[in-house]
Amino acid sequence: MSAGNLFAFLALSIPIIAILGGIFSSIFKRWAKLKEKQLELAATTAGEQAAQYAAKIERLEAHVATLNRIVTDKGGQLADEIEALRGPAKTPPSLN
User: Fold this and answer.
1) CA pair distance 70, 81, nearest whole angstrom
2) From CA 64, how far away is CA 56, in angstroms rounded?
3) Domains of the chain: which residue ranges?
4) What is the pLDDT along the chain (96 residues), one digit of tens a residue?
5) How many helices and strands in the chain, by DSSP H and E?
6) Closest by alpha carbon to 66, among 80, 52, 51?
7) From CA 93, how far away is CA 96, in angstroms rounded?
């Protein structure tokens, strides 16, 4: 390879490498933004699920505490407590 050919090769290679570097840099920046948005969405979803699970656990703990109190209650209030948990009594429909 002569000096002229080497110079021509370098003269063409450097701009091509610079152009390709710019293209790859742009692609990488877009990919990085996409990954950042995916992570933000995952964090938001995880936070919402954690809040839902915490509320559910709180309700379950309240139910367990009520059931525990009913089971350990030895007084005559047991039947009243069970009926209160069933909800309001339904009246039968009238036969008019």
Assistant:
1) 7
2) 12
3) 3-76
4) 688 888 888 888 888 999 999 999 999 999 999 999 999 999 999 999 999 999 999 999 999 998 888 777 766 676 777 777 787 666 656 655
5) 2, 0
6) 80
7) 9
